[in-house]
Amino acid sequence: MSDSRIPALSPHCEEILEQYRTFLPVFAKMEEVIPTKLKEFFVESGIIVAALEHRLKTESSLAGKLQLKGEKYPDIFGLTDIVGLRVITFYIDDVDKVASVLERLFEIDWENSVDKRKAHEIDSFGYLSLHYICRIPESSYHDPDHPEINRIRFEVQMRTVLQHAWANMNHDTGYKSGVEIPQVYRRNLSRLAGMLELVDDEFSRIRQELSDYRRRIQNLVASGNLSEVPLDGDSFRSFLAIRPFDALTRRIASLNQAEIQEVDLSRFLQVFTEMGFKTLGELDSLVREFSDAAYQIACFQIGLTDIDILSSSVAPQNLCTAYLLRKGAGKAGLRFMLDILNGPSESNDILADFLVEQTKDLPFMNQ
After folding, report:
1. Three-state DSSP class for 311?
2. In total, how many domains does the chain have?
3. Of the residues 124, 155, 177, the one at which a domain ends
4. Is residue 182 part of a domain?
5. If you placed Cys at 47, which of 24, 42, 151, 320 could pair as Cys (CB 3.0 to 4.6 Å)?
6. Residues 348, 322, 239, 255: what is their CA dihedral angle, to the nearest 10 degrees?
C-alpha cells in the first residue's frame, strides 16, 4: 500500500526515491558513525560543544523535496542533506574550531559548502550558520558491507547557542516563513537580533580576555612577580601550582617521618581573602614570615604522637592559625577559619578554645 503522504512524482524522482530505500541501511550507518567520530575528535581537540544533533531525512520529506526540484539531481548521490548534523557551540570562535575538526576528519565539498556568516542583512542573525558538505574518506572509516558510505555526501551546520535559539524563535513566530507579519513586530525582532548578536560577540570577547588574563597571571607567578598579582580564583590556582607550602609540609612531616596525603587546598582561598590578603605577594610573605610559628604549632600538635599520615593542608592551616593568633584574632578568628574549612560545627569552638590555650606559651606568641 502506498504512503498517502508521498506526493506523485515523475519517473526520474521515483527512481531516486527507490534508491533512497535501497541505501537506507547505509544512511542509518552514517547517522551512527559520523556523530561518534565527531565526538571523539572534539574530545581529542579539547573542544566542548553545547549540542551535537543529527537526523536522517524521512522518505516523505525527501519526496517533498523531489517534487519541488527533483529533476536537478542525477541520482541519490546528487543529494547532500539526506544525513544532516548540527553542531551547536557556546562561542562564536568555537564554530571555526569545529570547522577545523571537520576539515581534518572529512573531505569537504567546498563548491557546495556555504558560510552564511558573511550575510549582512539586519535580520540575518539566526541564519549565520557555517554549512559544510562533507564526505567520509576511507582513511577515516570504511565498511566493506557498505562501500557507498564513502561516496554519499552529508551536511553539517555549525552555529552558536544564541543563533540556534534565535532560529528556533523565528520558526515559532513565523518570521522568515513567507508569511508577512506587522511591521512593528518585524522591527522588534530585528532589534532583538541585534542585541543577541552583540551578546554573542561579547561572550567570545570576554572569554578571550579571561584567557589572556590567566596566561599573564601564570607568567607572573612563574617569574616570581607575586606582588603584582591580585588574589582571586585564577591566581590562587596558579599559586598552588608552584607548591608554595611544600617545604613547610615536609618539615612538619619530618617530625614523625609521616607520609604526606595530598588534598585539595583551593578551599583556603576563602580563608585568605577573609583574612584580608589582597595579592599573592602577601601570601608569599605569610609563608616566609610565619613558617617557624606554624612549625612550632605542629610540634605541639603531633610531636609526641605516632601519626604517620599527614594531610597537606596542615601547612596552610597552621600558617593561618599562627597569623590569626599573632594578630590578636583569638578564639573568634580561629572559629571563623575552622568553620570555613570544616563547615560550621560546635567541635570547631572546642578546637579553637584548645588552640588558644595550648599555644599561648609558644615562642612565636611572645615575640
Report:
1. strand
2. 2
3. 177
4. no
5. 42
6. -90
Of 150, 158, 154, 131, the residue nearest 52 (C-alpha): 158
User: Are 163 and 256 in the same domain?
Assistant: no
Q: Give residue 315's domain range.
A: 242-366
Q: Are residues 151 and 254 in the same domain?
A: no
Per-residue pLDDT of the chain (367 residues; tens, 9 = 90+): 445 566 688 999 999 999 999 999 999 999 999 999 999 999 999 999 999 999 999 999 999 999 888 889 999 999 999 999 999 999 988 999 999 999 999 999 999 998 876 655 545 554 567 999 999 999 989 999 899 999 999 999 999 998 888 777 766 655 444 556 666 666 777 777 777 778 888 888 888 888 888 888 888 888 888 888 999 998 999 999 999 999 999 999 999 889 999 999 999 999 999 999 999 999 999 999 999 999 999 998 887 778 889 999 999 999 999 999 999 999 999 999 999 999 999 999 999 998 898 888 888 887 6
Domain-embedded: residue 35: yes
- d(Cα 80, Cα 110) in Å, to the nearest integer? 12
In a domain, 278, yes or no: yes
Q: Is residue 253 part of a domain?
A: yes
What are the two backbone dihedrals, phi and then psi, of residue 171, each rounded to the nearest 5 degrees? -65, -40
Q: Write out the DSSP string of 47-90.
A: ---SEEEEEE--HHHHHHHHHHHGGG-SSGGG-S-SEEEEEEES
Strands 83-89 and 154-160 come out as parallel
On whether both 249 and 153 belong to a single domain, the answer is: no
Residue that is last in its domain, among 147, 177, 207: 177
Q: What is the DSSP string of 151-203?
A: T--EEEEEEEHHHHHHHHHHHHHTTTTT----HHHHHHHHHHHHHHHHHHHHH
Q: Could you tell me where the beta strands, DSSP code E, fall in the chain?
A: 51-56, 83-89, 107-108, 114-115, 130-135, 154-160, 259-261, 309-311
